[in-house]
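Task 17 of the worksheet. Students: predict the tertiary structure of the chain below and write it out as structure tokens. Keep your answer in the requested format; marks are given for formatting as well as content.
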Amino acid sequence: MFFSSLTEWTPYNVMLRIVVSLFLGSLIGIDRGVKRRGAGSRTDAAVCLGSTLVMLTAQYMNLKFPGKTDISRMASQVISGVGFLGAGSILVSRHQVKGLTSAAGVWICACIGLAVGIGFVDGAVVVTALLLAGLHILPVIEERVYHYSRYMTLYIETEDSRAVTRLLHKIKADGCKVDMYNVERPKAAGQSFTVMITARIGKNMGKEAYVQSLSEFEGVVSVDSL
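Model answer:
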């Protein structure tokens, strides 16, 4: 292990753990911030640094009062408590959930901070590297999978219920197989009907072109591909 010496409790190692924690947390935050996503470098760095301090404090208490403290108790409080912070970055808009990756990033920063705090720096560094690699590679893979997939989830707003019926008939007539749909009536006068449709399109149909054709259909207000 490259950082095995950091497991020993010395003033130098304590300071080095804090510096490593700040660096790893900032690295994750900067990567997310460059993409204009995530909680930002300051939040991620603060969460990682705070978690490290909690773990260092727990370890210090165990050394000061041997047999009278439980190191894992403070760590478990961090893991559960940081969930409230992550929940603040999750937004639900038009049946789309955004911010889950940001929330997971805050949570994993806390985990990395705890690992560094107890001296398991090797694991923290490896997880940070894998996380950053995954955040860059997985979107490319997802984009390719979506490009070749024949399934679509559509969020459609229509003028009235009759337009919903006509739209479903059109989609089926175009050779698409509707797997699931859900219609929501407007809650107030003047609002549109909304329908969520999961469908499998034909082999020779382009997704963008088909979404455009649906948006031009009579009675349709807007179409979004989720």
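Marker's comment: The chain has two domains: 4-145, 149-225. The CA atoms of residues 14 and 57 lie 10 Å apart.
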